[in-house]
């Protein structure tokens, strides 16, 4: 009987940023819970290929989440295939990377951080989330039910510990840039706003704050991060699947406006 609370059978989910490290895992989780899944990212061909990998109950749709017309086209396609949308996972985000390691420390400093990178992060991490919620959320409001999950971060809760980016020679190899923590903090505030605004309409809005995910980072960083975390390790990409399914379905039916932290204990210190 408990299984029904974690089943997403006959539910349709849209995942943005679906081709990323965590985006793919979100899609796997939803599909494994029997949801219909719309794989959404910029590259239409790659979205369709990944949807084919998932199975018959998935479709791939390329879309630019900062463009209202593109999102309306996405919704039209999703409704054509699955009739409606029940779950929206706002996962798409920019997390700055610098190609040249020799200049990364200087470019990532707050004093030197380029305005164009700041604006790009605001556009994707915030405006994109706003537009997706506005357009897909209206469908949920119209039918009186739905779940929006905004992917935030531990760095939306606490400031980055810049010492994590120092190597064994105490050299600062990189600074966590200002735009990511700023936008992720705003994701959590936006979640609370929308949860209050749409609570009476049957649409639940929660955020999920993951900790750092191991993904071929430098050994010194993995070691630093693991020491800073009570569970003694970075996350694996699949560590968030259970939390996502919990927020998506009936198991969290009396939960809205919350920020679910899954970080190995990183933010308790």
Would you kindly provide a written description of the structure presented here, covering whatever features stand out?
The chain has 269 residues and is α/β, with parallel strands linked by helices. The protein has one domain: 3-Layer(aba) Sandwich (Rossmann fold), CATH 3.40.50.720. The protein is built from eight helices and seven strands. The chain has a seven-stranded parallel β-sheet, with helices on both faces. Helix 1 crosses helix 8, helix 3 runs parallel beside helix 5 and helix 5 packs parallel to helix 6.
Sequence-ordered SSE layout with sheet pairings:
Elements: E1 12-16, H1 21-32, E2 36-41, H2 44-54, E3 58-62, H3 68-82, E4 87-90, H4 101-108, H5 115-143, E5 146-151, H6 179-198, E6 203-210, H7 219-227, H8 241-248, E7 259-262
Parallel strand pairs: 1-2, 1-4, 2-3, 4-5, 5-6, 6-7
The domain count comes to 1
User: What is Rg?
Assistant: 19 Å
**Averaging pLDDT over every residue, what do you get?**
97
Assign an overall shape.
globular
State the secondary-structure class. Answer: alpha/beta
């Amino acid at each position: 009987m408990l299984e029904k609370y974690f089943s997403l059978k006959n539910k349709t989910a849209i995942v943005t940023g679906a081709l990323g490290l965590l985006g793919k895992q979100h899609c796997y989780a939803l599909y494994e819970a029997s949801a219909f899944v719309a794989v959404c990212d910029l590259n239409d061909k790659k979205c369709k290929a990944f949807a084919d990998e998932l199975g018959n109950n998935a479709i791939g749709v390329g879309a630019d989440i900062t463009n209202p017309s593109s999102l309306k086209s996405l919704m039209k396609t999703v409704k054509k295939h699955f009739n409606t949308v029940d779950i929206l996972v706002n996962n798409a985000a920019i997390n700055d990377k610098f190609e040249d390691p020799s200049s990364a420390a200087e470019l990532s400093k707050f004093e030197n951080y380029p305005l164009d990178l700041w604006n790009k992060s605001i556009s994707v991490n915030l405006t994109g989330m706003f537009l997706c919620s506005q357009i897909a959320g209206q469908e949920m409001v119209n039918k009186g039910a739905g779940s929006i999950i905004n992917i935030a971060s531990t760095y939306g809760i606490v400031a980055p510990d810049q010492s994590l980016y120092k190597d064994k020679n105490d050299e600062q190899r990189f600074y966590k840039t200002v735009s990511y923590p700023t936008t992720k903090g705003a994701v959590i505030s936006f979640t609370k706003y929308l949860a209050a605004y749409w609570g009476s309409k049957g649409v639940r809005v929660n955020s999920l704050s993951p900790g750092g995910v191991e993904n071929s980072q430098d050994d010194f960083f993995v070691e630093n991060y693991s020491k800073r975390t009570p569970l003694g390790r970075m996350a694996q990409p699949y560590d968030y699947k259970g939390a996502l399914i919990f927020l998506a379905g009936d198991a969290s039916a009396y939960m809205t406006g919350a920020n679910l932290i899954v970080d190995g204990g990183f933010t308790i210190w």
